[in-house]
Amino acid sequence: MTTTARDTVLGRIRDALTLAPAPAPAVPRAYRTGRTLPDAERLALLTHRLVDYKAQVHPCTRDRTAEVIAEVLRERGARRVGVPAGLDERWLGAYDGEVRPDSASIPAPSLGELDGVVTASAVSCAETGTIFLDGSPDQGRRALSLVPDLHVCVVDLSSVVVGVPEAVARLVPERPTTLISGPSATSDIELERVEGVHGPRTLAVVIRTDA
To answer: LUD domain spans which residues (predicted)?
Structure first.
């Protein structure tokens, strides 16, 4: 077998790494943690960030969850809605359209037939306006929240924290985590904003202020 100059150089690099392995660098962990804000301030900060990202925000009390969700779906003309298998059925109690429970056996492309999806959430970061989904039964698989054009996401105020370190501390590292900051959007070469490229074009966040 012919040995090229490239092979020789790469071989020497591998030998050097084997003989003198670099020590693992220390990872700084001095994050700002444990920050808190009163409920009203966390709600105001999260709402401001979400609206700035062009999401729709609908605060309500927990006893109006079903009513507000139905209003959002009706306003968007959603007649077929997907839901995770573990979502609280009462949340769709006021909705008069078709509800399709999701499962892993349903091909992801067929989720495009849905007008929207309703999910819960794991935790939200007020400082960055980011909602975290962790694949729990009431949040479902990642495809369910990315394929339909409308995502109605229910956030309990008790799950809203100030910053990213506080949010990450509430997550289980082994779970698949999806981060959402407003509806899906990107910019083309002329910096024109294009929505709905990598996920839902519309994000409606129902924040339950007493939950």
So the answer is: 112-207
β strands within 84-188, DSSP E: 98-101, 116-119, 123-125, 130-133, 150-156, 160-161, 178-180, 185-187
Question: Among 177, 193, 189, 185, which Cα is nearest to 121's?
Answer: 177
Instruction: Write out pLDDT tens, residues 140-160.
Output: 999 999 999 999 999 999 999
Locate 210 and state its tokens: 């007493």
Helices vs. strands in the chain: H and E counts, helices first: 5, 12
CA distance 74 to 95: 8
- 209: tokens are 């202020």
The pLDDT tens digits of the residues spanning 96-113 come to 999 999 999 999 999 999
